[in-house]
Amino acid sequence: MKDVRDANYCGMGHRPEPFRNTRRGEGSCAAIHTRQLSCQVAGATLSWSKDYREAITRTRSGNAATVAYFGDRLAPDDAAFLNSAFNHANETDDTHLKSPTHPGGIAVPAALAMAEYAGGDGEKLLLAVIAAYEVQIRLSWACSPHLIYKGHHPPVGVGPFGAAIAGAIMKGFDLDTTINALGIAGSHSAGLIEYTKTGGSVKRIHSAIPTQAGVRAALFAEIGITAPHTIPEGEKGFCKVFAGEYDLSRLTDGLGEIWHLLDNGLKPYSCCHLIHATFDALDNIRDETPLWPEDVNAVRVATNSEPILSHIGSIMEPDDILGAQFSLPFSVAMRLHNGNRGVQGGNGFWDYTDVDFKDSELLETARKVSVFVAEDDSEWSSVDKGAGVEVETADGRVLEETVTFSKGLPENPMTQAGVEEKFCYLVDPVMPKGVPQVIIDAVNEVEAVKDINEIVKLLVVLPAPGARSAAE
User: Fold this and answer.
1) With respect to CATH, is domain 273-403 assigned 3.90.800.10?
2) Residue 251 class from Cβ within 10 Å (0-12 exposed, 13-18 middle, 19+ buried)?
3) What is the pLDDT of residue 203?
């Protein structure tokens, strides 16, 4: 791991230059923090989040870090586990589609828990988050696309490394201790994507498992546990065992100058990101030609690879929320029945918690939707990040639209105002009036925060009268 050793993330005593004046909105650090914190708060109200909290709080103890929304005080690895579980609870956290992985739901909870434990300030927290993002993304990118094609869920595999780096920075580890933390993290890598075939709520902790593992790896390294220093590239290391095919140069190319974090995408909709471009294309079609379910005979969606089709086109009639969020046909049916566009178009956080999977009209519409792999010479053969949509109407027309980059990807970013709108959409129903704006203001100036508890305490919710809970 020579190049990584030379890079020495923990030796960076200042904020990396590219982030001093980074743009507001999609790629900004403020947007990253804001969105992840809103996912934690809203996600804490879901039934499976409450189940995980009950399991952890009744068997664990500690007082080093805070659980969002509820205010429990636990050991840093347990608090990080729950906050990460809340963060990834309903498919609303960010996506680095190129790798692909979901770095934010691991980086932010791990860094925040270790900041409480170590007594860090906002500037160091920001550095830890940036480094955690970059480590996860680079490792996933080095193994892309082979990691996910083999059935591994990248966040669970690469996440322990990011969480470990966050912990190492917050604790101020030297180089050798940091590499040990990474080596320990590698022994925690896991994750399978069978849920794309049959659903299941265990996917909700696919960021929590690596977050807890990485924080623990840092705590173990702190007391002197050692580990192999060749964990990414070794003969029995992560890349070879998990991916089989990989490109180690991607781990270090442009390190410290090229920031893959800025390629990160935010989700306007609470479902698999591979479905988002279809929504945008459908919205564009309906802007020109208003359509309701009864106006549609068929919707055909083109993608350019069999693995993508398998990921989002396998489930037609979901049995649970997760199944719906990975079902392009059912999610498109939800959008057609809603009739609106954008964030309010029927595929948001609260929409998936309310939907009736047995609704006969929704299912009838879902059966009209099909997904196929475009031929190499077709107009849709390059829609790897987007979608080609063809709508056949009841009166015989065929309406077509292609969206190359869905809303939220760096090529089609959300504005800062759009990020704040989504933040408020998530937390307004569960937080007292005025608190969401206080959080936004604090995160926008996170470098000036001297006591991290100033932010943490804002995430503990005293439910206001009439506040809703997804668990209802």
Assistant:
1) no
2) buried
3) 87
